[in-house]
Specification:
Length: 946
Amino acid sequence: MKLNKLKFILFIAVLSMSAAKSFGQTGTIQGLITDENGIYVPGANVSLETIKKGDVTDFNGRFTIVSIPVGTYTLKVTYLGYKDITKQVVVKENETTKVILELKSGGIELDEIEFRSYSLSGQAKALNTQKNNINITNVVSTDQIGKFPDANIGDAVKRIPGITMQVDQGEARNIVIRGLSPQLNSVTLNGSRIPSAEGDNRNIQMDLIPSDMIQSIQVNKAVTPDMDADALGGAVNLVTRTAPQSFRLSATAGSGVNTITNKRILNGSFLVGDRSKDKKFGWMLSATVNDNDFGSDNVEAEWTDEFAYFDGTDEVEMEVNPYTNVFEQRTYLVQRVRRSFSANFDYQINDNNNIYFKSMYNWRDDRENRFRLEHEILDAEDIEIGDFTLTNNTPTMFPVSVVRQSKGGINNDRNKNRRLEDQRMQNYSLGGNHVAGNLKIDWMASLAKASEERLNERYAEFESEYIINSSTDSENPFYSPVDASDFNDLASFEYGEITEENQYTEEEDFNVFVNFELPADFFGKGDGFIKFGARGRFKTKYRDNNFFEYDLESAYSTLEGIPTKDYSKADFLAGSQYQAGLFASEEWLGALNLADGESVDDEFLRDNYNVEENVYAAYLMANQNLSNKLSVLAGVRLEHTTLTATGNNILDEDTLNGTTTKESTYTNILPGVHFKYDATDNTVVRFAWTNTIARPNYADITPTLDVVTGDDEIFVGNPDLEPTTSMNFDLMAETYFNNVGLLSGGLFYKKINDFIYTFQQETSSDFYGAGTTGFDVYQPLNGDDASIFGVEFAIQRKLDFLPGFLKNFSLYLNYTYLTSNANGIRNEDGDERDDLDLPNTAPNMFNGSLAYGGKKFSARVSANFSDAYVDEIGGNAFEDRYYDQQFFLDFNATFAINNNLSIYADVNNITDQPLRYYQGVSDRTMQMEYYGRRITFGLKYDLFKK
């Protein structure tokens, strides 16, 4: 693999040197556009109207126009919401003319100008970039991010049309774009793939990256051939801050409180950057830290419609109304410390060549204690007549096993008696932009790594049995002991187990790419180009877990003899009826001297694997004007994937029967066409036909076989899984307002083949070994096909047509509707199901905010809604798991003390929206987890010097 990687890098180097020999007998204009404070202006349209040539500034405010005949020209810059500016430039043969322009706020006054030191609003930067892109995108700038109370980049992304987020501990973590699962979308940092620290999938933890570290977010919903093709739903590119044109210092300091624990929040950040006197060398350093001490109140349940008991002779099985056969109550105490560091440098070698280095290091510690009260109905052989009650064919009283489990970690400076999850993501990129005659060249090489380490994670369990009454309120499942004294009878809770586990997952990505662009005008209609390039992405991922059990029963025979704490709360957010009771304390658990443990192989052997995945890609595309209003971008991308996966073969749960390694390769040819029609100066219509793929999850393609005899279950990997492919059609119309607003609407359709789901069936023979007949088999398989149809609508508008102070209000709304179907999903009997949507497709998504911006004071109320959707497919409709609808309401306000200093206050999750899953039907709760509200406040300081 290393030899192939080296050959590919050498191929790119030779291609670069060969292409760089292209020179022309014309001149070049290179330029930079900033605002009054030296902040770069992206999305500005720069043109030489007499010869129909131009460019659009990138995220760093730069533009390049090549192949210009010698002469004097008027360079025109247009920017939505501002007056056009012009400048006379002289182009000389085989020379580059350098132009630096400043876009001032003397055009149309914006709300941000009135109370912030920024001359250009974030909305102006985002909408100008979006307007001038040929493909269908949504862009959010750092200034816009700051107007929402979003601590991490996941919470910021959920404001974009067609996007919903899956929540973890109250923060947006996994991104769902246009109804497609997180692993079916790609996330890059400055164009370099972000690796995943998740052990069993490709999900990118969006809550790992603080929003303060990002300059802009671009969501490409219709990818072009020069982008990675593994983006079925879309591709998210996060652009970090770059060195300014002049000195800038920015800092934030804040605090707050989480209402669920009444514990503090601390946050701070700084950013400092400047450029040398000759403007060639620029640098920027930034860092942020967020220390959040919070928790969650959780209730979980499993449902069944079968009941069994022992009549003295035989076991009797019967069908009953659905009831809760497993009930859990959990109390989480969490400290989340998020740190991020960034150092970015760039150097302008000369007018035609610049290089840059960008880096980011994200480090998050999650310290967690969990106290779980678990009940599970006894096996049929342990339930006798008289032990249970059926009310209208619903079990309402029966005996259960009860477990009180304390989760923690060792007592040291890092763990602090808590389970410590240490997640890190780092990215280092070196790249350059060059002009050689008429040829534009850009390249980048990057190394990225993500890891998750959980050491000395400890569990202590004490077990009892008693009879409970089961509530018939399916939305609020609840068990209560028939004899109330059983609940905290510590002497009856006997030693179950004490365990310690260690987990480590690591993914490393090496990326290298080069792009070449030449001017071309096939139809004599003005500016156009041909672009081609190559990319290599080389990934390794492995997981190394272990698990040990310790025999301490003689020392701690019951819960009565050890230190305990009462974790009951009268204000438990799921309801006051849920009282936790007494648990082994985290201090006692952390102080235990655990040695000579017995390895419990069935807890980790299936999880461990090693995967190498290499992707070699090349593309060719052309962008041409077909008329003065219509342009087309057409091209094709080729991606060749090689894969080597190693997994464990496991017999009888805990016997390692060697490892299996499988290799596979596949090649995808992916054409695409994008049309852009400028109906007016401010109205754009786009149409796209694209083809994309999604590679299987690592855990799914690992050739693992795990026969779990004790549970009559078999888990089988599938290294022969095909990648999921999608043919996509998009139509979008946008009208931009001169006061920097937007009205847009569009349709999209996706035809998906070979989507992946987990198939469940019962074995009819001993194919997997003696005595495995009747076992449940779980294996990832390719479904047949699926389709998604959607509608998007968005409006951003300042209400400046209203009288008086009302003109300072602005409105932000977007709505997405989805409908989907999936074919080829089979139930436990092997019959095809026709009652399912494609998993993770929320039918309705909505974002809205109403904002006020005055000279000193600004405020915003923001709402986010996503509908319920099927999350996990069961063996039948009764077992399907759904992610319930969510409605979040947030508020934030800012007051400018002067041009540099402001104070802010945020309130998150005003609605106290829980994370909720249900089984089969909406009133059958599987999980409801509450987080409370988060209140933060602080100071922001910005200083610009020119």
